[in-house]
């Protein structure tokens, strides 16, 4: 395709997009109005689905397909980073240098690691009841594990960071979200439609499919971020340029 043809195609698409965007904006409620149709319907839906936290009801029930897209973006980002930062032929892996940490920092880290991990689990498990959920809880879980790096050094982090298991958990978390969506199709409904008992409003077992989707996202986000940071940390701490074989230097 010639340059002029690409420019004409761009302007044609731009005009269509501009018209569609303008029409969509003119159909929105006026700014500052007391009438919010989407908000009213969202509140009614979360009460009907017995999900006490309306944001989780929107993310994991009413618009769960959008959340699947967001989770897939993170999974693709982690996969792309692993491919880009893989060890090249002109690089070698050297032993990490021991770090020096203040005793007060080490003590605080040892205390905060289990507290942070427990908080992350709590946030994931209670995502249908209170602010939080799989995305927020997964980030907290990854942060808690990396406190071992702050409170000790990189060697300690490597011992408590089973990358092979976390790689698998990242894929399983993403796959579990996709698989849970097929439950609605198998039951004769729509993809990601809730097919589980709704439980009692305000209880941990409420929300139907929402807690399971939250758990799948928590596993995928937590594992994915740890694997993502591992790629950058390995590059910064362990990977070094290979020695030139023809330099004649010593071992």
From TrEMBL:
Places the protein is found: Cell membrane
Entry keyword Membrane: yes
Annotated keywords: Cell membrane, Membrane, Transmembrane, Transmembrane helix
The Na+/H+ antiporter MnhB subunit-related protein domain, residue ranges: 110-226
Keyword Transcription regulation: no
Transmembrane segments: 68-86, 107-125, 137-156, 168-192, 212-233
Membrane topology summary: Multi-pass membrane protein
GO CC list: plasma membrane
InterPro entries: CPA3_antiporter_subunitB, MnhB
Family: Belongs to the CPA3 antiporters (TC 2.A.63) subunit B family.
Protein name per Swiss-Prot or TrEMBL: Na+/H+ antiporter MnhB subunit-related protein domain-containing protein
């Amino acid at each position: 395709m010639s340059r002029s043809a690409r420019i004409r195609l761009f302007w044609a698409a731009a005009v269509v997009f501009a018209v569609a965007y303008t029409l969509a904006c003119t159909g929105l409620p006026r700014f500052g109005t007391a009438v919010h149709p989407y908000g009213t319907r969202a509140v009614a839906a979360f009460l009907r689905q017995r999900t006490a936290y309306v944001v989780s009801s929107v993310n994991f029930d009413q618009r769960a397909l959008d959340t699947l897209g967001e989770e897939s973006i993170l999974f693709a980002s982690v996969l792309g980073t692993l491919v880009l930062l893989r060890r090249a032929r002109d690089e070698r892996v050297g032993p990490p240098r021991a770090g020096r940490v203040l005793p007060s920092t080490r003590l605080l880290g040892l205390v905060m690691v289990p507290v942070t991990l427990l908080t992350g689990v709590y946030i994931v498990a209670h995502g249908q009841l209170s602010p939080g959920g799989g995305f927020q809880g997964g980030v907290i879980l990854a942060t808690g594990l990396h406190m071992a790096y702050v409170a000790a050094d990189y060697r300690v982090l490597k011992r408590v960071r089973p990358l092979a298991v976390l790689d698998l958990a990242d894929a399983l978390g993403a796959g579990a979200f996709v698989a849970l969506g097929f439950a609605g199709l198998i039951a004769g409904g729509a993809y990601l439609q809730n097919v589980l008992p709704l439980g009692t409003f305000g209880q941990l077992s409420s929300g139907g499919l929402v807690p399971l989707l939250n758990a799948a996202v928590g596993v995928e986000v937590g594992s994915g971020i740890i694997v993502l940071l591992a790629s950058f940390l390995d590059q910064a701490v362990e990977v070094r340029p290979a020695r030139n074989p023809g330099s004649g230097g010593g071992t």
